[in-house]
Amino acid sequence: MTGVVVLGATGSVGTQAADVLEAHRDRFRVEGLASGRRGEALLAMARRLRCPRIALSDPEAAQALRPSLRPGDPELRVGPEGVLSLVDEPSATTVLQATTGAAGLPASLRAAARGKRLALANKESMVVAGPLLGAAARASGAEIVPVDSEHCAIHQCLRAGRPGEVRRLVLTASGGPFLHADRARLARVTPAEALRHPTWAMGPRITVDSATLLNKALEVIEARWLFDVPADRIEVVVHPQSIVHSMVEFVDGSVVAQMGPPDMRTPIRYALGFPERLPAERPRFDVRDYSQLTFLAPDRERFPGLDLGFEAARRGGTAGAALNGADEVAVAAFLAGGLGFDAIATVCADALARHPFVPHPTLDDVLRVDAWAREEITARCSR
Ligand code: MG
User: Fold this and answer.
1) CATH annotation of 2-146
2) pTM
3) Tell me: the pLDDT tens digits for 227-280?
4) Which has the closest alpha carbon to 374: 339, 322, 302?
5) C-alpha of residue 236 to centroid of ligand 1, in Å
6) How far, in Å, is the centroid of ligand 1 from the Cα of 243?
7) pLDDT for the residue numbered 202
8) Interval between CA 64 and ligand 1 midpoint (Å)
9) 259 forms bridges with which residues in the sheet?
10) Which residues make up the CATH 3.40.50.720 domain(s) of the chain?
11) CA 92, CA 102: separation in Å to the nearest integer?
């Protein structure tokens, strides 16, 4: 039995992880579940999965949940320290990190430092502090297995060759709902339109990021650190059907791709079960259902956010923290009606160019740049 803690349990990946864990009760014991402020949903999930402890990082939400607790219910831990204490539980050897945003970084670092299997859906941890996270994992022997579907695909493809045999990584992108929209149309995109993704069901921030291609920008940075491959050996292709989840080209010219229907439960199953594969109940994939798989070059003029990822991956240091911090605030401002859709990439480019760059940052440097970027964009959007 593997003891598992799920962080961000009430979000999109977290609830799908709960389904996977429930289907594999014979293999996994759920040792802890954490959420930001969705107390009632967290408690219901904990009761269903017979989980002994939960944590809410928002103390007010924890206070509000207390009257609902009955004898036999899980122990409630409070605040960011409460969340970290779940990661510390000796009975938990796997941490599924599905928190949204750079707020997930402390728990990711803690899991890596404690030598846990880190099933990483929180790409921001890698984007903001990839080298620090990698160093913590190497020191403890922790294994990081990506849940992000593209990176999970690459992780699988890399098993077909040796590290020195890799020529390049090819990340696929759906292209989002505005793949063929012209500039005038992009300037008028509303939050409701941006939240309708053609192929994947995901949380609001990543859905908007998919529409601007900034999600792919962050994934380029994530791949750079996760697989230790320089930016000039990473490529992005648009693949609207989201069936080929990514590819690896090897030095002999062989290209290995990983395919499947777009369903986050597949990478969740992979990251929890690795190196074994957990059986899925879904019907067998029939390639004849997809008679047209298309691949095209991304339009870097209409979607300037993509190149920011390559730039940040090339520069390293605090560039990822600046880009991600700016994007988190810019997306929130767009969803609140305070920033145009096409301005998200503009303000991110500005933050990336102007931030106080540190080439070999400590955790404090990274957090300082993250805060700087948030303040910059907040001030800009309130002007
Ligand atoms: Mg992805």
Assistant:
1) 3.40.50.720
2) 0.96
3) 999 999 999 999 999 999 999 999 999 999 999 999 999 999 999 999 999 999
4) 322
5) 12
6) 12
7) 79
8) 34
9) 244
10) 2-146
11) 23
